[in-house]
Amino acid sequence: MNTPASFALQTGYAPSGAGLAKVAAGVLAACLAVAATAGPALSDPIELVDAENRTVIVNDTSRVVSIGGSVTEILYALGLEDRVAAVDTTSLYPARVLADKPNVGYMRALSPEGLLSTQPTLILAEEGSGPPEALELLKSASVPFALVPSGTDATGVVDKIRFIAKAMGVTDRGKLMADAVVDDLASVEDAVAGVGDPAKVLFLLSLSNGRIIAAGDDTSASAMIELAGARNALTGFTGFKPINEEAVLEAAPDVVVMMARGDQAASAEDVFAQPAFARTPAAADKRLITMDGLYLLGFGPRLPQAIADLSAQIYPDAVRPRLPGRPWAIDRPAAD
């Protein structure tokens, strides 16, 4: 029976109010305790249909290799940390992951030999992993290999949670967690609907050596901008591509957004010192927002919190949604 107690125990879905942080912390400990007592042995094989419409049969979930930051984040959020045998370099949350687990490399530069040397019983790889020749070898190996669907919208993150939960044999727990995320997304959507005229936002992937690489249509960045109640200042092309000064001036962004992590990071002074950005509306108040890359673009279980935080930075005077505390979203990275 899905009582309120079992709901909170399995997902951390607790009512808001006084003592919420303390409740959430206790729920997280309970969630991990549940996972520790629930063994990976499967009474019946699990049949999955992955992102490439391949049928994958799972018999053992005791040693899963997790490829993709959001995949790892969901596994940990479901309380399945002890079953994670290895991860990739994009698995940056929770912060302890890369210190605790073997690292099989970057998700788009996988080595089948190195990955299989961790002796996995299941490999879950986020859609977009590669290179293609490595994936073909992994698909033909004896270890079940499943590509996790990774849609960059609200439905996509819920489907991802349910897929991973099913693959790991914890479908009920996954449903409860997915339902909690759906509720939070609805609260954020209601709040975002009241922001008024949408701001024009340009997502800047890199400004290395003065070369501007920005997000066009059909990108995770464009999707996040729209979910936050704004609109992508750049249209007419898809993906992350180099653009020239004229394109930036024509886009006339009100706000510029960047990732805070790694060599993609830059200060407002760096960005608005560039001739392409110095004459934009965003330059008047140096409106540069930097956010953790996985949090902003990962489309994991913290998506509602990431949307709320991005929207609050774009529209500082708007009313923020009140979201319940979730154990998987306790450590929300600060935005600048």
What does this protein look like?
With 336 residues, this protein is α/β, with parallel strands linked by helices. The protein has helices at 4-11, 20-37, 69-77, 97-100, 112-116, 132-140, 154-167, 171-192, 220-227, 245-251, 268-272, 275-278, 281-284, 293-297, 303-314; strands at 41-49, 55-60, 64-67, 84-87, 122-126, 145-148, 200-206, 212-215, 231-232, 240-243, 255-259, 288-291. The strands form three sheets. Strands 7, 8, 9, 10, 11 and 12 form a six-stranded mixed beta sheet that branches. A four-stranded parallel beta sheet has the order 4-3-5-6, covered by helices on one side. The longest helix has 22 residues, at 171-192. The chain is globular and about 60 Å long.
Describe the structure concisely.
By secondary structure, the protein is of the alpha/beta class. The chain is built from 15 helices and twelve strands.
Topology, pairings included?
Layout: H1 4-11, H2 20-37, E1 41-49, E2 55-60, E3 64-67, H3 69-77, E4 84-87, H4 97-100, H5 112-116, E5 122-126, H6 132-140, E6 145-148, H7 154-167, H8 171-192, E7 200-206, E8 212-215, H9 220-227, E9 231-232, E10 240-243, H10 245-251, E11 255-259, H11 268-272, H12 275-278, H13 281-284, E12 288-291, H14 293-297, H15 303-314
Parallel strand pairs: 3-4, 3-5, 5-6, 7-9, 7-11, 11-12
Antiparallel strand pairs: 1-2, 7-8, 8-10
Helix pairs in contact: 1-2, 7-8, 8-15
